[in-house]
Amino acid sequence: xxxxxxxxxxxxxxxxxxxxxxxxxxxxxxxxxxxxxxxxxxxxxxxxxxxxxxxxxxxxxxxxxxxxxxxxxxxxxxxxxxxxxxxxxxxxxxxxxxxxxxxxxxxxxxxxxxxxxxxxxxxxxxxxxxxxxxxxxxxxxxxxxxxxxxxxxxxxxxxxxxxxxxxxxxxxxxxxxxxxxxxxxxxxxxxxxxxxxxxxxxxxxxxxxxxxxxxxxxxxxxxxxxxxxxxxxxxxxxxxxxxxxxxxxxxxxxxxxxxxxxxxxxxxxxxxxxxxxxxxxxxxxxxxxxxxxxxxxxxxxxxxxxxxxxxxxxxxxxxxxxxxxxxxxxxxxxxxxxxxxxxxxxxxxxxxxxxxxxxxxxxxxxxxxxxxxxxxxxxxxxxxxxxxxxxxxxxxxxxxxxxxxxxxxxx
Length: 411
Ligand SMILES: [Zn+2]
Known about the structure:
The protein has 411 residues and is α/β, with parallel strands linked by helices. The protein contains 17 helices and 10 strands. The chain has an 8-stranded parallel sheet. The two termini are 18 Å apart. Bound molecules: zinc ion. Zinc ion binds at residues 72, 170, 172-173, 250.
């Protein structure tokens, strides 16, 4: 399970949630993830994440594995992550649709020719219909991207040594979802390239916006997710991929309506899963500060006033993953009059609460840079309210994410 922490202060609180899950019989491996974009927005380095993760592990006496993810890297960005990371999310979405050579397309489609006809995948009700034309389409769309993943994988493996890191290949920032058939033949291509795919992140149907719930057709997602699990199990055996291969869900955090259906699917398939969820730890910090009242609440209100005034600048890196209705944002003057409780309730992800405002929540979510601009004051306030904030961070991860996804209980 991916976890994250913009300012690197909540590692132990998050890890304690994993310990609580472990005490209840669910073993989850924490993976600290921070993308290149996030590092550049607030001026942190991969080494900072490594230090935070290792410190939290020591402090909590965590006995299981833990990893540090170089999230969404490519050949141009991977090098600065090499020393600190042991999990690499190779993002090849931009390479989708670029042309592989005629020679490699011919070799690939010849090797896949044995699947032409009706492809029966255990767990999928209807056989997939595979034609030479559909194989050619898949090769035209995805083969170059898989070859690019292979180049990045080999670049990392030459420096870290094969077997010393976890390999994820991600397509989630593609324009269109991959069908189960596409996923199957992508995994075939990856296996031919010798990429030991530990986790694969397809793009799923629907929208995965930052810090708010899933927007899309839940029934369709449910079917697609179960079919993708079936594809992975079948591809693993057919192409000798790593035994522990998992689907990776880049959730954008807080996909509460998906957790029950994902829970049922992984239990039915006896499958593992990798869930990336990260950014809401920052929101729990703001909620904790606001709930503390006094200076903490004043800071949270001032941060919102600044964010509101600099909307375009805050939104620019996130335009494809937010849906903020600016008319539905409270004005800073209105927010200035809010009580601690009112601020907390507007921000906290409790869809049953009438005060909850998803536009306000997204606005604060993408404005973590503003806390970085006043970092010493922000960190001092976190210190002053440490117990309250850790309580929020711990409870958020455990009851809103781990329990519904891995234990099948609702928050
Ligand atoms: Zn992603």
